[in-house]
Amino acid sequence: GVAIILWAPKMLAEGRFDAVVANVVAEAVVLALLLVRRIPCEVRAFLLIAAILGAGVTALLHSGPSAEAPMQLFGEVLFAALLLGRRGAAAVTVAVLVAIAAAGWGFTTGRLQLNASDAARLASPERWVQFGVLFAILSVVTVGTMTYVLLRFEQSLMLSVELLRSLEEQVREKTRALE
Do 101 and 132 form a contact (C-beta atoms < 8 A)? Predict the structure, then answer.
């Protein structure tokens, strides 16, 4: 919220109205998801990820593989891993890589335009391939690590619950024996 207030005037001065709108919509969705608890958890997770993806793709279309776009898109994959698991994170990673490929194609073919200083840098297909490969590697490693840690945590939690139940049963048996 505060970041948009500070960031929006600069973006509007640069003619990036759609970036401001995308980020305001993403913030509104996040706020609504925090306030409306009746929405099922899975739907809330999907809407949160969709809102962040929209803002990240908009940033990618404006700044290419620099500035805030890579961080927003990578954060998207992290949220997907935490909220949707391995399959959801894989789907989001594929969606982000498709967006990167489409943006790279648009910038390298001249269908998407930037200011002159960024245009030369983003016209190189090699830059986009490097960005896409690095993003894919980071996403796969991070999602793999996160899902492994979450799985181990869940297994430890289940073992703790089983041990607690066993201990409770033993206490009940000892209490009966003493009565």
Answer: yes
Read off the pTM: 0.66
Amino acid at 76: E
**Cβ 122 vs Cβ 114: under 8 Å:** yes
Residue 37: C-alpha distances to residues 27, 40, 42, 53, 166 (Å): 17, 8, 12, 22, 35
Q: In sequence order, what are the residues at sequence separation of 6 or more whose Cβ sits closer than 8 angstroms to the Cβ of residue 24?
A: 4, 8
Q: How many whole angstroms separate alpha carbon 103 and alpha carbon 23?
A: 19
Nearest-angstrom CA–CA distance, 55 and 8: 13
pLDDT in tens, 115-145: 665 666 666 777 778 778 878 887 888 888 8
